[in-house]
Every structure is written in structure tokens, then in C-alpha cells.
Amino acid sequence: MNNSRNKAIYDIATAPVSAVMPAAPANVNFYGEDVFNADAMRTYLPKDICEKLLATIDEGVALDPSIAGDVAHAMKRWAMDRGATHFTHWFQPLTGSTAEKHDSFIEPSGGKAIMAFSGKNLIVGEPDASSFPSGGLRSTFEARGYTAWDPTSPAFIKRHGNGATLCIPTAFCSYTGEALDKKTPLLRSLQALSKSTRRLMTCFKAGPKKTTVTLGAEQEYFLIDKRFYLQRPDLYQAGRTIFGATPAKHQQMNDHYFGSIPSRILNFMNDVEKELWKLGIPAKTRHNEVAPAQFELAPLFEEVNLACDHNMLVMETLRNVADRYGLVCLLHEKPFAGVNGSGKHNNWSLSYGKGNLLNPGKDPHQNAVFLTAICAIMYAVDTHADLLRMTCAGAGNDHRLGAHEAPPAIISIYLGDQLTDVIEQLEQGVPKSSKQAGAMKLGSDTLPPLPRDATDRNRTSPFAFTGNKFEFRAPGSSQSCSEPNVVLNTIVAEAFDMISEQLEKLDDKNFHTGLQKILQKIVKEHKRILYNGNGYTEEWVKEAEKRGLPNIRTSMEALKALTKDENIALFEKYGVMNRAEMVSRYEVNVEDYHKRIHIEGEIARDMAKNIIMPAVVEAYSKALKTNEMALNQGFPGLDGYAKSLGEGMNRLLAAIDVMEKALGGLHEGIVDAIATLRKEVDGLEKIVPNELWPLPKYREMLFIY
Ligand code: ADP
Ligand code: MG
């Protein structure tokens, strides 16, 4: 028998089962205990300084440098009280993960040491930036980059086995001020959208209020037993299985989705949630997803900058806690072929003051604002579909988009029947059908109540209105939430400005008739983006083409949106990214894509050569020997079986050869060669004796945990 595979199964089968917890009162007093939040600030800071800091955070104004020293001191005392000996500026470079370089608070003093942390330590850091991808923004000899404190995302503590570190969320820039990270453009896009929202709301006679963009990021992931994972170089090197035959049973029975959660997984989820709650991350929903071994965690929505930081911590926490349970959390978009991949649904909305602009209103005034926002978003998404598609590019997500499990690569908006009906009435100014009573007249009519329940859902749409928010479903599970929201904020800012510019020319008397005309024009010109049907069908692909909607199938094509002049002009106009920053992101993403494909190609070749091939050779020679013995004894023999192994072996050799050549060429060739190699390996998996097969199989990884 294949010892390691079997031993893993045996160990899992005989692992102790945890006892059911005796009844005891639940307690969530620890919520937020590892966050330097308003409560902690009030405890550790003098009142006047605390007020100044809270105002900075609330109004997004610049920090008064004279209070930095006191804030740093308070933060250090707070962190030390919780066991921290180190601090780090925590940032999000263009690698897509987070980065941290720890420094201790230690300062030697007279043979002993004191713990010190200055205002400067808090506000700026100077990590050596030369080894982070910058896409040519900064050549390596000008290695200096700096991190700058983002007071709008609170400092927090990360704990490990025997210590703790104070983490300070920061933006990461070059010395010339160019953004080298994912946070800076997000903060800039928020400023842009705040300004445009205020301008629009001023047209509606609203006083100055704070604009808040909200995000709820639903995170899908897989969990598999670490004992299998460690036997799969493709998984631990590329994050996905490059080989693996589809098992007889996978997700066709629909018996995993929302099924009862196995206790090992529930224990894991409980621990994840506890850790997240300590960090003030409002983890709310947990459930089994569609594929076997696939799960989801959804937090309550929060302000988008905080939510983006929190999603990075969610991913890290999932991985860390999984390890404690002998599990591995796979965040790759497509760890297993043949079953669903993982996405990250981006629930986006915006409020002005306390009012959510995407909440259908109760009175005619609110309706007018709501319909203006909906039309603005139609305009934005239709005009800039290429930018939204770009945010989902990546070697992993290429396996998912358009694969009839995730939204297609064609961007469209789902509004649901009733809201679509309202929009059509708005366009025509007359009742379209008997569904609604009267014509939609802005400023005097109210909206019919719009359904907000889960039945009115269309899972095949990439961009769906879901009651009081839009759910962008194309982003991949491993991706940072930053890009989709940078783009959404920027394109909606532009749409709001486009509308405001026209509204500002109207006088009070004809405001509503004028607004109606503006929105009618938008609907006429952009209703092609609306689609309530099944996005997985071939008809939609054809229909979308007829409508002139782009169908951008691959990442490499999608990334080009970053280099288009009109897109660069848009981002420059809103101060979100300049040309150099846009082009650098193009370069970084293209390079990332190429490297990943190349790494996968090399792994595929190596595994085929030195893991699969020896097993096939052994199976083949055994079959040949048995065949010979059988023939000697006058039995019919195993000729057919031995032959199929021999033929498979030869095709495998040929496919390895193709791979070898492909590795010297372009990525398309490598992708094709991986597919060819996989076909051969997966075919062999089905005929090589189970006991000789060297890799854990799909039926094991997806079902035994
Ligand atoms: P469902 O689970 O049916 O998709 P939910 O209403 O539970 O829908 O929402 C899913 C996600 O959307 C959650 O993370 C939730 O917090 C988030 N969400 C709800 N309202 C908003 C909002 N106004 N802005 C941003 N996200 C929101
Ligand atoms: Mg959902």
C-alpha cells in the first residue's frame, strides 16, 4: 500500500473526537479587546488629546503632529498591557498580501532596558522597499519607501504562541509619493467619491454630511487535512491541485451546500470567530458552500477601508487557525478542478450621513435620490465595465470566471424584475404594464415596495442589486478587496459629477422634470447593461455581443484596461492614481500572472516526471510480469491492461516533452501544456492500482477530514 496516503487516512480515522461542551453562559466581553479603539483611547489618553484623535479619525482630517508623541505613548502602554514587546507598520504591498517588519520597543539604558515608542515611530516607517514589486515605479537602487500611519484604521495586536505585536495599519509609498500599495489608492478614491457625493447631495438640498462607503466581503475557502496537503507539492507550491481525476461523487448531489457542519470544522470556525471578534472584526455568518470541503465566512459590513484591512486579517486568521487544527485553508480561486471555485462577493453601498443612498426611499424625495444613484451606477458600470473586469484578473480567477459556477466575464447588472420595471417606467414616463399603478414621476411619486428577500436573487449575475447594496460577485477568493472598491468609488464619483453638472444648471422650479430627463437619457443609453436572465447561457454570450458589451475572457486581456488612455485620464482626474501608478500595476499584475503560470508549469513537469512516472513504471512492470506468468500457465493474460498502462506511460512521456518545450515559450503554450499533461496524469490515476498512486486523491482530500 502507499504508506503515506494510507497513514493519513488511518490517522484521521482514529483521531480523538472532541467532547461536546457542557452548557455554560456565552460571553463576548472580549469583542475588540485587541484593538486600540475609542474605548482604549479614552482609557489611555488625556481627554483633550483623545478628542483630537477621534476627530481626526471621524472627519478624516490630517493628524495634528503635536499629539503624535502622546498617542504613541498611549498606544505603547496599551499594547504592553496586553503583552506586546514589538511593533510593526502593517501594510499591503502590490504582492496582494500583507507585510510587516517588527521592531521591539527595547531601548538599552544604563545596563537595563526601557520600552520606548516615539511619535515618529508611529507616524512613519522606512522599510527597505527594494524587494517589493513596484512595476518600475522605483528602481532598486532608490530602495527607500516609507509607510505612513492610517489613523482611520485602528491599531491592533497580533498574538502568537509566546508573544504579541502591536500592528499599525499604514499606507506604503515611494519617496516621490507614488503609491506602492493597495491602501493608498483606496483612500484617495474615498476622498474623490466623498467630494462627488457631497456635490450631488447638495443638488438635492442636503446639508454637508459625511459620505461613508460600506463593504461586506463574503469570503469563500476550502479546508483540507494537512496530512494530505503535505503530500501534494502542487498544493503547497501553487495553491491548487494541478493533477487529480474527478471523483465519482463530488458536488452533483448538492448535499454539501448549507449542510450540517462537521464538528471538527465547527470547532475551527468557532476559534476563527473568537480571534476575529477579539480584533473587532464582526464575523457573522458561517456555512458550508457548494463544493465538498468548501465553506464561507461573512462579516457584517463596515466602512470600506476598515473592511479591506479586516478581510486581509480574515484570510490570515483562517490560515493560522486551520493550522492549529491540522487543517489547511485554501484561498486559491480554483484549488480543485471539476467542483466550484471560491470567490469573494463584494457587497458595496454608500451612505450620506445616516442615509444609505441605495435604500429605496419611503417618500418621493428619497426615491429621487435612490433612482439617481441607481442610474449613476448603471452609467458607471456600463461605461467602465473593462475596469471592473480588470479588478478580477489573476491566474487563479481565470479558472473561475465564465466557468458556469461563477459570474461570466461579461459585466452586466441585475436589478430584479420590479426595479427593472421601475427603471423602464422612469425611462418612458408612462406606466409600462399593469404591474405598477401609475407613471413614475420623480419628486411626486413613491416607489412600490421592492422585494428584499433571498428569493429574488440571481447567482449568475456579476453585479446584482440586493436590496440596499450592489453585490459584485466576480472578485476571486484570494484577492485583496482594494481594487474592486477603488474602481467602484472612482467610476461612481465620475457618474455623480456628470449628473451634478447638469443638475446645477436647473432652477428649483424644474428640478424634478430636469432630473427625470437626465435619468431618462442615462437609462436609454445604458440599459444594455441590465440583464436579469441566466448569465451562464450561450444565448447571453450572443446577446451581450449584440448589445456591444465586452466579453473579456482572460486576465492578460483584462489587465490592459490599466494602460488605456481614457482610464488613466479618469484616475488622474480623480487623483486616485497617476499614469505611472496605473502602468506600474499593469506591470506588476502581468509579471505576477506570468510567474504563476511558469511556476505551475514547472511543478507539473516535475511531478509528472518524478512522482507520477515512477508509479506508472512500477504498475506497468508489475502488469507485464503478471501477464508473462499468466501466459506461461496457459491463462489469457493481462495483455490489454498492460498495454493501456504502457500506452499511457508513453503519452505521459510525450506530454512531459511538450511541457519541457513550452516552458521555454509563452504563457499560452504553458497553459495548454499543463492541460495536456493533466489529461494524461488524470487518465493514469484511473488505471494505476490505487495502492501505487502516489498523490492523495480528490475523493480523499475533499471528503476525509
Ligand atoms: P446574503 O447573505 O443573502 O447574500 P446579506 O444581507 O446577509 O445577504 O449580506 C451579505 C453581505 O452584505 C454581508 O456581509 C452584509 O453585512 C453585507 N451588507 C449588508 N448591507 C450592506 C450595506 N449597506 N453595505 C455593504 N454591505 C452590506
Ligand atoms: Mg451572499
Give an account of the 3D structure.
The chain is an alpha+beta fold and 705 residues long. It has 2 domains: 38-181, Ubiquitin-like (UB roll); 190-593, 2-Layer Sandwich (Creatine Kinase, Chain A, domain 2), CATH 3.30.590. The protein has 22 helices and 18 strands. Strands 9, 10, 11, 12, 13, 14, 15, 16, 17 and 18 form a 10-stranded mixed β-sheet that branches. Strands 1, 2, 5, 6, 7 and 8 form a 6-stranded mixed β-sheet that branches. A two-stranded antiparallel ribbon has the order 3-4. A hairpin with a 2-residue loop joins strand 3 (106-109) and strand 4 (112-115). The mean pLDDT is 93. Residues 218, 345 line the site of magnesium ion (MG).
Write the layout of secondary structure elements.
Layout: H1 3-14, H2 38-44, H3 47-59, H4 68-81, E1 84-91, E2 99-104, E3 106-109, E4 112-115, H5 119-123, E5 124-125, E6 145-149, E7 156-160, E8 163-174, H6 183-203, E9 211-225, H7 226-229, H8 233-238, H9 263-278, E10 283-288, E11 294-299, E12 302-303, H10 304-324, E13 327-330, E14 344-352, E15 355-356, H11 364-383, H12 385-390, E16 413-414, H13 417-428, E17 463-465, E18 470-472, H14 482-503, H15 511-526, H16 538-547, H17 555-559, H18 565-573, H19 579-632, H20 639-662, H21 667-687, H22 698-701
Parallel strand pairs: 1-8, 16-17
Antiparallel strand pairs: 1-2, 3-4, 5-6, 6-8, 7-8, 9-11, 9-12, 9-13, 9-14, 10-11, 14-15, 14-18, 17-18
The structure holds adenosine-5'-diphosphate (ADP) and magnesium ion.
